[in-house]
Amino acid sequence: MQIDNKDLNFQLLPDCHVFNLFLTIFAHNYGNMTLSQEVYGEMTRRNISPDVVTHTILIEGYALLGQAEKANRQFQIMKSNNIKPNVFTYTSLIKAWAQVWRIDKIKQIYKEMIGSGIKPHRATYRVLASITNSKFDTSQKSSSNLPISRTPQHVRDTTKLYDKLEKVRDSETAYTLFETFLKKFDDTNYNPRPNIYSFTVFMTSFVFYHRNMKLALKVFEEMLKRNISASCYCYNVLIEGFARSNEPFKAEKMFYTMINNNIKPDVSSFNSLISAWITVGRRDKVFMVYREMKKYGINPNEVTLNKMKAIGM
Fold first, then answer.
1. So what's the pLDDT on residue 241?
2. Nearest to 94 by CA among 83, 80, 81, 104
3. How many angstroms from the chain centroid is the CA of residue 152?
4. Which CATH topology does 5-130 take?
5. What is the spatial distance between Cα 220 and Cα 196, in angstroms, rounded to a whole number?
6. More confident residue, 281 or 254
7. Which end of the chain is more exposed for a tag (fewer CB within 10 A), N or C?
8. What global pTM score does this model have?
9. How far apart are CA 309 and CA 210, in angstroms?
10. Do 19 and 49 form a contact (C-beta atoms < 8 A)?
11. Where does 46-148 have alpha helices with state H?
12. Do domains 5-130 and 230-313 have the same CATH topology?
């Protein structure tokens, strides 16, 4: 059973807040900045003005992927539109430059933040402290002695591969890049070893960019072969992928595989599984997943509630 648009009964108006919600899901939950930019573009086409939160979400999304130049570009777009950055905007941009070992840029942004009369937040100090073995002095007022340590080589290599993946159109070429990555991983002289982050970047690419679940599962299997334990986020990417490809039973199987491996699902896990069953009109399954969500003590978020409203539940 296919749900017709006329059956949808959304209560949310398409304002800046709603678009920011979707931006957060794509940028932070799924690490998909291509879709995030599509949402951003749709927002501006509808003459809905982005606010400081909109730009900060995008800057943080690029920071999480180590794409500092793109984060900085978004920051400059924001300022050119006369939107004043806040402490979280500066913190996200500092995080982005820290990923690529640009101490000069970190000092520049930190100095600009202080010069604008914006006091560092706990999150700012946490970002700085997280990339050093020593604690950051929260009484520090200047940027002269920022405690930055060099970003691990595998993070920088993965970031380069991510940039290449964005330019690749076909999934087979993308998988060739993954095989190149595996050779480096299996090289015993490569230290430190690539970790779950690197594999997740490839899984995300195959699920959201190339819509190729077969290759996404290959990446997942290669990761497990190398004794790297999957996280909740890894499973979420695959569950969402199966939901988008109208394969709810595979999404359900992946969901329970995660639980059987003693990984507690989060709200995104349940939301993706709910979407999978909504796509094929299985209201009974949707209700069952919703009840199980409550059983796990996970509160529905705005995305969950909108999905339930869409099918009149």
1. 92
2. 104
3. 20
4. 1.25.40
5. 10
6. 254
7. N
8. 0.57
9. 30
10. no
11. 52-64, 68-80, 87-99, 103-115, 122-130
12. yes
